Amino acid sequence: MSENNQNLSAWQRFLKKITKANELGKEEEIMTDHNYDGIRELDNVLPPWWVAGFYITIAISVFYYIMVFMGNYNQEKEYQDEVAQAKIEHEAWLKQDMKNHPEKYTEAKAYTDKAHLDKGKELFMAKGCIACHGIDGGGGIGPNLTDNVSILGCDFKSTFNTISKGGRPGKGMVAWESSISKEDRQLLASYVLSLRGTTPANPKAAEGDKKCD
Ligand code: HEC
Known about the structure:
Layout: H1 10-19, H2 27-30, E1 31-36, E2 39-42, H3 48-70, H4 75-100, H5 114-126, H6 129-133, E3 149-150, H7 156-165, H8 182-195, E4 210-211
Antiparallel strand pairs: 1-2, 3-4
The chain binds heme C.
């Protein structure tokens, strides 16, 4: 074996080292006396690369056993820990967001007293609602706001939502969220509700299938 070593490249020597393969033509040296119907057996050594892999798996199994069965590491716990961590982070974020945008977290509230309704009326004139809904809410391009039906909802929440987010696509009712403050949209929605049941000069024919009391 060794007499040929000088002629081998470094790579070939390396391969030889990690496989310890028996040289061809020298099978007799490692032939066992097992013989099964002419099938015989060579007593090859285990290739060192394979043995190394085998020992590595044993080492890993020890590490794994200690971690999982003696320590407190497992996938379930890892998952629970991550969920708990995410919860903490989300709560911190929520706290900060509530601080930065308090208006997002408070329910819009309806006003019914005259002072606030008067303010709502002023806004209704000033913000251009009258261009489409008429000076007395009787309607025009937009629907009549005084009759007892509605397209998008009669209650305060729906009305506030329509003013904030707009009407159905392409109908012309703008989403005022970005240009009118939340407080003012509350005043507008309150005022719009107070128009119901009033008698405008030129009422537009009723639109919508939502019955309002
Ligand atoms: C450019 C025209 C236009 C302007 C300006 C406008 N609206 Fe409208 N509005 C409409 C139209 C059109 C609809 C119907 C939307 C639909 O059919 O989805 C509507 C619907 C509504 C509704 C729901 C009516 C229903 O029957 O459900 C409310 C409430 C409303 N507008 C309030 C306002 C307020 C308050 C303003 C002013 C801040 C305003 N609108 C400005 C055109 C307008």
